[in-house]
């Protein structure tokens, strides 16, 4: 399978600095399924073309772990060596890694610059027809040209095959172009040659940073890229929505003004929830805060923006989520002073972790519903008993409100183990507060319906003030008998 990238930027041979491959040499790399070769069919001052040719090893391809069409002959009779697919994306990730990351040791300014590009892929599978190519690439600034391949040129009555010759032209940064291809080639193919797990969500979000969240077909892209796995798809979409809410105003493009104005007319629930949590934290006067189950860092970004929080710790059981949080917080761009305020740790909230002790407040924002109810007592002991912060803020969905979501069938998230009514949440909160020496205040979050309540419910737990230790002479019995003693005298 073949991919070529051309530019007319002058001098065009600077393309070699961007892909970190010398135009005068042919280079070969061992990659998944075969060998990738990089060479330059043309390398002139006015025009330069770099080619990636992937030769697939048929023996390697036939291994059971490669996962093809599921049939007995699928490992031996398939189109994998001839068409652009996830195999080509993996090769790109290995051969053009620096370019994908937008890094160039010798031409970093050029790596940040949009240049004229032409991308040619002779054989691309298009599951769903060639119109899907336009849907996927045109919103990203590409001019799309496709030429359908007939099933058999000798028998035109058989119609078109599911393959097309793809040509993209546009003025973009090379990193943007490569990340578009890295994600969308497997999406067009609608297949993966390897098992898809939670790590693929992180790959998708990393490669889609800056463009996937605003794509009109992001649901289709996420679903296909993640091989139709519903839990992973919902996780990716939820993280994309969360990322949208923390984009700095200066980064909002002009053509997004209408979307921003529409969002301002109706504040999303996730923003209302975050605002309610920050308001509750402000009431406690907390300076050292835990974000338990921090996920990809949506709340951490809001905490970072508040100077009153002098120490912030994000804890999550998922290393992939912590990696994404680190990128979203832009750790690599922080000053030493800023970085000293924030720590990310991997920790399971159902186990005692002494690193979490001694904080002013802890937040579990939309966390407890992801824990099996049978494991909640372990979480209670670990958070309220062992870590024992001065205050704990818990938010969780109100299942009674779900009737307002017309398309909802079941829980709001595929990974939710339960969703509670207001009475169930109140009963749990009261029991936990009494068991671990806290008081609790229950609050609605979001628009309240007189019948079903609010979409989210919040509990603010505060450590109950200990009884004052009195001098024996000031005990209640001594105080009560004081006047009698005076009278006796």
Automatic annotation (TrEMBL):
Keyword Metal-binding: yes
Organism superkingdom: Bacteria
Domain Hen1 N-terminal: 1-240
Catalytic activity line of the entry: small RNA 3'-end nucleotide + S-adenosyl-L-methionine = small RNA 3'-end 2'-O-methylnucleotide + S-adenosyl-L-homocysteine + H(+)
GO biological process: regulatory ncRNA-mediated gene silencing; RNA methylation
SUPFAM superfamilies per the UniProt record, alphabetical: S-adenosyl-L-methionine-dependent methyltransferases
Keyword terms, alphabetized: Magnesium, Metal-binding, Methyltransferase, RNA-binding, RNA-mediated gene silencing, S-adenosyl-L-methionine, Transferase
Example of a GO MF term: small RNA 2'-O-methyltransferase activity
Broad enzyme group: transferase
Required co-factors: Mg(2+)
Assigned EC number: 2.1.1.386
Residue ranges, annotated region (Disordered): 469-489
Annotated ranges, domain Methyltransferase type: 290-392
Gene3D superfamilies attached to this UniProt entry: Hen1, N-terminal domain (3.30.1610.20), Vaccinia Virus protein VP39 (3.40.50.150)
Protein family per UniProt: Belongs to the methyltransferase superfamily. HEN1 family.
UniProt-recorded name of the protein: Small RNA 2'-O-methyltransferase
Taxonomic placement: Bacteria, Bacillati, Actinomycetota, Actinomycetes, Mycobacteriales
